[in-house]
Amino acid sequence: MGLREPHDGTGGESGRHALIMDNATRSYLVITAGYWAFTLTDGAIRMLVVLYFHLLGYSPLEVAMLFLFYEFFGIVTNLVGGWLGTRLGLNVTMHIGMALQVFALMMLTVPESWLSVAYVMAAQALSGIAKDLNKMSAKASVKTLVKQGGESKLFKWVAILTGSKNALKGAGFFLGAFLLDLAGFRAALMILAGGLFLVLIATWVLLRENLGQSKVKHKFSQVFSNVAAINWLSAARFFLFGARDVWFVVALPVFLYDRLDWSFTETGSFLALWVIGYGFVQASAPKLIRGHQPGGRTALILAIALATIPAGIALAMGQGWNPATVVTIGLMIFGVAFAINSAVHSYLILAYAHHDKVSMSVGFYYMANAGGRLTGTVLSGLGYQLFGLAGCLWISALFVAIAAILSLPLPAVASETQRS
Questions:
Q1: Which of 360, 356, 359, 372 is nearest to 406 (CA)?
Q2: Is residue 266 classed as helix, strand or coil in its secondary structure?
Q3: Nearest alpha carbon to residue 354 among 254, 194, 160, 212
Q4: pTM of the predicted model, to two decimals?
Q5: For position 250, what pLDDT does the model report?
Q6: HSE value, Cβ hemisphere, 13 Å, CA-based, for 122
């Protein structure tokens, strides 16, 4: 039976509202599916590059430097991408990100003699641009699909999108390590590129509405936020994600492979399980803190609790405890606490942002996120080379403590009318 608008004014308005909500849910599901597919390739390419180039004899610092442009251009992309999203529409920037990722994957399928450090860094630069265009577009789109005043629904939708993304990124770590063992480096990249290209076509057809395109043509200078809460939250985000990547990007996989003598698949499986578990906890964050709307104080308390965990792991390793047990159990606990911290941050940035400038606010925030990842990535290779995994964990604890201090000025979440 087709939809028919009743003659009664009240019924007609109700029917139109139901149709709008149906379209919003449909768009959310398409965006989420595209984000999932992209995230699989992002996790897989990260694991492929770390393990393959370590196998070729690259030092931990050299492996970390391969991701330097990946993270650096993530900073630039988030800054410019939010502004582009207001002008072109978030669905357009999301699909540009997918296309760039397909190209970046294919760049690495060249003969081994072509894979110089500069060449791989260039391919990773494109991948970094692609990842942050896709992430900024997907997360900012959620704000445009939720009506003003729907803070509870916003927290739920953001938590599900972010948590499921991280679970799929974990699956991508496993997929990358598995394909490296099964098919080799180049064949694995071709499989990933082909799959993502098919998803790009499907989401382009299904996502027709132009999301997030602002009626007001904002100047580029407006990408720098003048909202104090967004600036403080962005600074805290910088150190929060630096604290994760300082041990996660290079130090941990090299430690598991070299010190614990794990295989590629075992290393990839552990990292996959960590990120999948982290993603499920993140998606469940609204239930875990049910009855309490997150605000600045929530972020502060969670950061203080998180800082004790890497410090505790480092102390236990220093006391000579079994490293395999300490690292695997300790980092699982860290993952749970970090996931809740990250979910609250992801909600707060959208809650603090104005609807008309959401992509610019999110872009600015994820620029800080990318800066933290860049710093953490470099310190992961350098710190491990100089101080081992325990040294990286001490740096992690320090970074989380700084994030806690930066969370002190964060306010409670205001209503949309209070922010306008």
A1: 372
A2: helix
A3: 212
A4: 0.67
A5: 84
A6: 10
